[in-house]
Amino acid sequence: MLLIGLTGGIAMGKSTASKALGEWVPVVDADVVAREVVEPGEAAYKEIVEYFGQDILGPDGKSLDRAALGRRVFADPEARRVLNGMTHPRIRRRMLRRVLGHYLQGARACVLDVPLLFEAGLDALCGVVIVVHCDAEKQMERLRTRDELDEEMARSKIAAQMAPEDRLRGADLILDTSDLTVEGTRERTRSWIVPGGSQSILPSVWWVRVCRFIPPIALISALWTLLSRRWRRF
């Protein structure tokens, strides 16, 4: 099974690309999993409420107010470190369990949709990494329009992320959405994932069957991918 990493900066079009990929292959979305692990009853939820207090709960007094929690940790590196320690390991484990589930179900490919793909080191597990990108002016315009932000707040959100040039260095495929409409972004993404297409990155059916029925080949392929990415990073 081909593991496809998908990442990109805020307001660059990653969500649109993820939906297009999801029409053909399963997608494991880190943002969805991140919401799941902090639901009431989850271990991370209990740790977060105990550490940050009742002020970060919503009007119902049960669910987390993610916006309030975000404001608490945005300007406090130590609080952000503590929160990440409570959530990130659980998010990674749950995501990898879902990837394994799709593999066991015979999927030809699976997408890891992760905003912090490189920061978390998850790109090392991926056979192909797609980076969604657009120019800085377009990103600012989209972010301010989408989230109704003033320029200062928009700039601070962008500045808090990995520099675009660092993200692009780790890409196998770059989806530049600067001059693309939403539908244009979908079409460009589909060209890489539609089975049998001239630009398709999906592994052939025979290769998937070989890897499933001869596990050592699948293991060697996975190790080769891991070592190749580690070498590129070095």
UniProtKB/TrEMBL annotation:
Transmembrane intervals: 206-227
Signal peptide range in chain numbering: none
Keyword tags: ATP-binding, Membrane, Nucleotide-binding, Transmembrane, Transmembrane helix
Single GO biological process annotation from the record: coenzyme A biosynthetic process
Keyword Disulfide bond: no
Any coiled-coil regions, as ranges: none
CDD domains: DPCK
A GO term for molecular function: ATP binding
Pfam families from the UniProt entry: CoaE
Top-level taxon of the source organism: Eukaryota
HAMAP family, A to Z: Dephospho_CoA_kinase
PANTHER family in the cross-refs: BIFUNCTIONAL COENZYME A SYNTHASE-RELATED, DEPHOSPHO-COA KINASE-RELATED
Protein name: CoaE-domain-containing protein
Organism annotation: Piptocephalis cylindrospora
